[in-house]
Specification:
single chain, about 260 residues, alpha/beta, Rossmann fold, 7-stranded parallel β-sheet, 8 helices, 9 strands, about 45% helix, about 15% strand, binds NADP nicotinamide-adenine-dinucleotide phosphate
């Protein structure tokens, strides 16, 4: 069986993925900022928990090298994320730094550590959780959207750069998932109607939001897909509809449609 290294596995999509892969017999390296708080994943014999904060380069180096001394890793799953919502002009320096540092630089730092290892073994898969807002611009997503667009771009670039070395690069694209994901939001005066419209478009049925377990199933399909060359996996009914609508209409017509 294979081994997956998960970044951001303390809750939501990351934890559901850790559990699913463990139940499928994989070895799971579940990394998180506060391993001492974990009580659920500790019950699996094939889950190994390590500390990893994507904003701490030294800790990333230490954890990745310790893990690679003990395990042969097949899949890196970058999933850590920090969310915010704000009027663009109100974003604070602190919020911008935190978002960039976690969502974009964090993903880059961890991925950098795995590339030489995957190149040496001439195989490996780098899967990253992006977002629907990394595929299309919507109002008030600020630096979070910028980070997710950038992460999508980094992944597409790496898809080409790493293909000659037998390394696959894939993204999982969720829309709205029922997790505890916090979008730190400031007051957004003047945007009530627009927010209401966007919310209705993204969540027409709030009782039936996609669950992290459903996303984990799509992550499992992406990782085990026979189509090694496919990069993008959109998850969730509404997210797929919007993504496909953009493909069908083209960028300009889609912006007018939104
Ligand atoms: N939920 C949605 O609607 C949605 C939609 C689109 C995309 N996404 C993306 O899905 C991914 C997972 O989010 P989720 O919905 O499952 O929410 P979540 O339960 O809040 O998970 C976020 C994870 O990221 C971790 N994290 C945050 N900052 C970190 C850092 N500096 N270093 C390491 N780990 C860090 C959190 O760990 P702590 O417990 O330590 O905070 C947590 O495990 C994120 O990348 C998010 O952007 C979510």
């Amino acid at each position: 069986m294979s081994t997956i290294f998960i970044v951001g596995s303390s809750s939501g999509i990351g934890k559901a993925t850790a559990k699913l892969f463990a139940e499928k017999g994989w070895t799971v390296i579940a990394t998180m900022r506060s391993p001492e708080k974990e009580t659920e994943l500790t019950s699996y014999q094939n889950v190994f928990i390590y500390p990893l904060d994507v904003t701490k380069p030294e800790q990333i180096s230490k954890t990745v090298s310790t893990v690679l001394e003990k395990h042969e890793v097949d899949v890196l799953f970058n999933n850590a994320g920090y969310g915010m919502k704000s009027r663009f002009e109100d974003m604070t320096e602190e919020t911008m730094q935190k978002s960039l540092n976690t969502n974009l630089l964090g993903m880059i730092r961890v991925t950098q550590k795995f590339i030489p290892y995957f190149k040496k073994k001439k195989s490996g898969l780098i899967l990253t959780t992006t977002s629907l807002v990394g595929e299309m611009g919507l109002a008030l997503d600020g630096i979070y959207a910028a980070d997710k667009w950038a992460v999508t771009g980094v992944c597409e670039m790496l898809y080409h750069e790493l293909a000659p070395f037998g390394i696959q690069v894939k993204i999982i694209v969720p829309g709205v998932v029922k997790t505890g994901f916090k979008m730190e939001a400031s007051a957004m005066p003047g945007f009530d109607q627009l927010l209401k419209n966007q919310t209705e478009m993204l969540m027409p049925d709030t009782d039936n939001l996609e669950s992290p377990e459903e996303v984990a199933q799509d992550i499992y399909k992406a990782v085990t897909d026979n189509d090694r060359d496919r990069m993008c996996y959109v998850t969730g009914k509404i997210t797929k509809e919007l993504y496909e609508k953009r493909q069908e209409l083209g960028d300009e017509a889609f912006r007018k449609y939104i």
